[in-house]
Amino acid sequence: MASQSKLASGDLVAFVLGSPLLLSGATLLVVISVIRFLLTRPKKLDLPVVGANGKDQRQDLVEGTLKYPESPYIIPTAPALVILPISVIDEVRNLPENKASFMKDIRRSFSSRHTGVGNETGPELIQAVKIDLTRHIASTLDDLQDEIRYGFDKELGPCEDWTPIPLYHKITRIVALLSGRVFVGRPLSREEEWIQATVAYTFFCMEAKNAINAYPEYLRGIVAPFIKEVKSLKHFKKRGSDLMKPMLDAQGVKERNEKLLSGDNIDEQGTMISWIMKHSNENDRYDPLKLASNQMGLSMAAIHTTSMAITAAIYDLAANPEHIQPLRDEIQQVIDEDGQDVDGDGFMKLKKSSLPKLWKLDSFLKESQRFTPPGLPANVRVTTAPLTLSTGHTLPTGTRFGFSAWAIHNSPFTSQFAPVPATASTPTHIPAPPSTFDGFRYYKLREIPGNENKHQFVTTSPESLNFGHGNHACPGRFFASNEIKVVLIELLRSWEFRFKGDVGGKGGAGLRPENWFGDMTCTPNTMAEMEFRRRKLI
């Protein structure tokens, strides 16, 4: 992708050089960009550097954290990342944006001035997710369960016998259907063009980021309009807006808004839109483009991370098939205890009160996320004012910092891996070492009296950072957790699955597609196929 963009930019450069007027304008832009870069770059930090700017920096994080457990060090990414000791997390985890900014780092990473990623969402979206989506978690569970059977039937097909399936591709479409059901409602959520637009927008967010970041910063403003990935990104964003506009017009935006503000119930269609509208200022409340921009930004965040987590979990189930039957038994046990609800089509659904009882499933997801996290560091921010730490160090304005989540989640010195002495009611608990995949690791920890509400998938703490920690912990993690669990419950109850060629379904770590590491991120293999067939229940 990047090489094709550079080829196109070569033609652009030749054209510019042949036009004195354009050459003068381009030269001025370069000069301005260079001056801006020199003025805004952070000051050099007098801190130790660990590792090199490589593709896989897991070992660098482990080494640096062992060597400098109580002081900051630098991982030489581009730009550099200061890793802080976990002892100072309470000093920084709740800092406001005018001290340390999460969005500034997102906008830098995605070159938002040129791609628009990070600019499309406003505070109204964050409020809608934090307040309304979280408050309505129980009611959205019905929508997710209604949609999941349709999603599997549509995307996996009959599968009466073992059928090869491109896993990640199909999971993104299933997640798009589930998210869309809550975010925009039917019928739009099931329209093929909407599914394609939201999935493609998610894909091109990452492609545009990589393509434009292949150029020096001072050239990006010149080449951005000509990079095909950036153009594709903007196309799908505009297409999403076009698809939403008739729905908004048909429902009467102003009338729906007046009902919303008066507290009247809103129908299924456009649930998330109504919440966003409630938190929007009056000028934006009726703007289809603004609402669509929020929706596309929300879809990017929801589809990308959720699809990655589900893909990794399915790989881990196939690699560790000894977990499958206990998970199926747990689901059945909860159904036997609680019963089931029946929807309008006669399909059985878990009750809202049943999902929190699936401790083994929750534990499996947490362990899967430990091995395939969304990123190697956590709580990454950029200082927007000088930041003085209790370690005696001051981080200048413009410094990127974060915490070594990978090292923490794999450290044998954290409490989740420490033996728990026997009590009168429980035997000594000796957890498996960090290098061993134990899907029921956190289930066993929660069985210890006093731990019942700890070590959950969505829990954040200084020892559990994959969803962040503090005021920038992922606000959508409760919805994402339910969404992931609904997918895996349907998979476990109604489907069989295995790696291609694993005829006996014995699994093994050697068959699992390897994760991809780069730019301090971790991604499950998005190209691998697996084999699926419907379970033949007697």
TrEMBL record:
SUPFAM superfamilies: Cytochrome P450
Organism superkingdom: Eukaryota
Presence of the UniProt keyword Ligase in the record: no
Residues that bind heme: 474
Cofactor: heme
Iron found in the keyword field: yes
A GO molecular-function descriptor: heme binding
Residue intervals passing through the bilayer: 12-39
Keywords: Heme, Iron, Membrane, Metal-binding, Monooxygenase, Oxidoreductase, Transmembrane, Transmembrane helix
PROSITE patterns associated with the record: CYTOCHROME_P450
InterPro entries the record matches: Cyt_P450 (IPR001128), Cyt_P450_CS (IPR017972), Cyt_P450_E_grp-IV (IPR002403), Cyt_P450_sf (IPR036396)
Record family assignment: Belongs to the cytochrome P450 family.
UniProt protein name: Related to cytochrome P450 monooxygenase (LovA)
Organism: Phialocephala subalpina
